[in-house]
Amino acid sequence: MQAAISLIATLFTYQGTVVLPHDLATGLVGISPTSGVVHSSTTVKLQNPPTLVPGQIVSVSEDIRREGRRTDRFITDVRVVGHGRLPTFTPVTAKTLNSGKATGQFVSFRGVVQDISRDDTDDRFVFASISDGDGLVFWAGAGKDSDRELFGLIGAEVEASGVAVSGDFTARRNFGPSIVSTSMKSLAVLSRPTKDLFDAPDIAAIEHAPPSDIAFYPRHRTSGQVLSVLDSKTFLLLRAKAGDKSAPIHPAFEGTPVRADYAFTTVHLAFEGAPGLGDFVDVVGYPESDLYTINLARAAWRKSETPAEYTTDSLFREVAEIATSRAQLHGKLMKIRGIVRRLPLPDDPVNTMLVESEGHFLEISPGLSTRLFEGMEIGSTISVTGIAFIEKEHWRPHLRIPRILQTTLVPRGPEDIEIISGPPFWTPMKFLALIAALVVAVVVALLRNQTIRRLSEERVNERTRLAAELHDTIAQNLTGAAIQLETAEALASNGPAGLRRILASAVKIMHVSREELRDCIWDLRNQTLDEKRVEDALRRTLLPLLCGTRLRLRFPVSRADISDSSAHAAVSVTRELVSNAIHHGRPNLVSIAGALDGDTLKFSVSDDGDGFDVEHAPGPRDGHFGLSGIRERVRKLGGTFLVKSTPGNGTKATITLPR
């Protein structure tokens, strides 16, 4: 089993003399204690760090933490305690420094800057490679100079000072022996560049060199026309293969006086600021090979004083209808037709548009244009013409055949993009949105049905409770009052006729009240309105009342088509009319018919019973409240009630109610 890695923490305090100019935000480097040189590239954890200048004596506290092979150092306290003498810097050569013999010493080194760039892992630091003619030395220090200002130091004679360290002072392993400082002030410029940066060998001289040699060549130059601009630091150059008469004639140049031997070179600039499309430029940079062509890295450019002997106009006549990544297409004019699958988002570092064409995906770069993709929508079908930029791996000794990484198409302008059709109405996102909306609608409907069912159950329960209370209280009281009145009427049988008449009327009114209360209790307990059709609700209500009387019922109205109040009134009124007909008219047949007429519910109740004289029918004064109660109920709902009857010819009642 592998042993567990333990964490060891140590607090270390020492005093020493500040040797190099310092910015504590970038760490502490170059403190010379009594026992020797201390180099520290640690993190400073101080809220108000002091400003350090060479010659100060400081007391430093560090929190050193070791975990396995890793050591982290954190400065927790820096205090100035006095002033001391500065140590002398030991001049070294590249050979001495790279041998490791000067490690841990304050050294100085003179040479010419070959290259200089900002650290891409921590842009506070700058790396420079300096040559004394016998070898290269790497120098690292903090600096805020722009990339263009740093590039201007290439070719300058400088004196670099600092602490000589081994190659493990950065996150990069095996960096090699180097000189480390904390400020660009430790990189003193002795003389500005005198040699023209563009005075370098032409890459035509290394056209057929093996990749293993190209990787070690110094800067080379070339000239040509800018064929495509990928971004602010990358562009594609069309250049001549000087002296290469064996190159095949490109079809675009047949019958033209221009040179036929051409090549494409990808240029990666050392700083932002690419030339314009179609410009004739001179370029200088470090050569790289991908086995297909020679490219230039860490490059600079300038406008050409004498344009090349060829032009790209003829090349632009070639439009290849393709949709695949092949190295031979690098720099060629392509035309594709496809569907937009992705658009760049605001402030997104990936500013390309993704297009699917015949099952392949290609990135469409806007180059330096900021409005190239305006009006585009995901799902649109477009036609794009542009220069193919095939990104490939660079040659390495263990990678003899570099892979093709990506194909990017760079339109020359807005006219190279044509929108053929907009996105289809049904896109995957819209379809998902529709499904989501349907799911929400179903959930809402289920919740609504549950709510309605719960409210309906609560309403039925409340009606049942009220009916029980009415039956147990008022109904019993009315029954008792009726018995008392009947007893009084019997006792007053020999009394005055007026008293007997009043008591008889009171008894009749009491009986009618009991019947109406019984009807109210029935209404409260009635659940026939839960039926889906009004006809079924009526049949269920009337069957217990018929007592052998035939029923003819035709009422084709859905319960959902009329309001609760109209449905309840229709059932209650019909029940009252049928009950009256059976009790008073002794019919053989009761007929009920109803239908919807626009916004009105019309129905009638007729019988073949004894009939009565409508004009002289008994009313409330006589203890009869049936017809007057129906008329009042219908009137409150905004309906009409009409009764036609003659003695011996039956009765017909016609009712209208709002829907």
Would you kindly provide a written description of the structure presented here, covering whatever features stand out?
This protein has 659 residues and is of the alpha+beta class. Among the domains are: 7-83, OB fold (Dihydrolipoamide Acetyltransferase, E2P); 90-191, OB fold (Dihydrolipoamide Acetyltransferase, E2P) (Beta Barrel); 528-659, 2-Layer Sandwich (Heat Shock Protein 90), CATH 3.30.565.10. It is built from 8 helices and 30 strands.
Outline the fold blueprint:
Elements: E1 7-18, E2 29-32, E3 38-39, E4 43-44, E5 56-67, E6 70-83, E7 90-91, H1 94-98, E8 106-118, E9 125-131, E10 136-142, H2 147-151, E11 157-165, E12 178-180, E13 187-191, H3 211-214, E14 220-231, E15 234-240, E16 262-269, E17 280-289, E18 294-303, E19 320-321, E20 333-342, E21 353-357, E22 360-364, E23 381-392, E24 404-410, E25 417-421, H4 428-491, H5 497-525, H6 534-542, E26 550-554, H7 564-585, E27 589-597, E28 600-607, H8 626-636, E29 640-645, E30 651-658
Parallel strand pairs: 4-6, 7-8, 10-12, 16-18, 19-20, 22-24, 26-27
Antiparallel strand pairs: 1-2, 1-5, 2-3, 5-6, 8-9, 8-11, 9-10, 11-12, 11-13, 14-15, 14-17, 15-16, 17-18, 20-21, 20-23, 21-22, 23-24, 23-25, 27-28, 28-30, 29-30
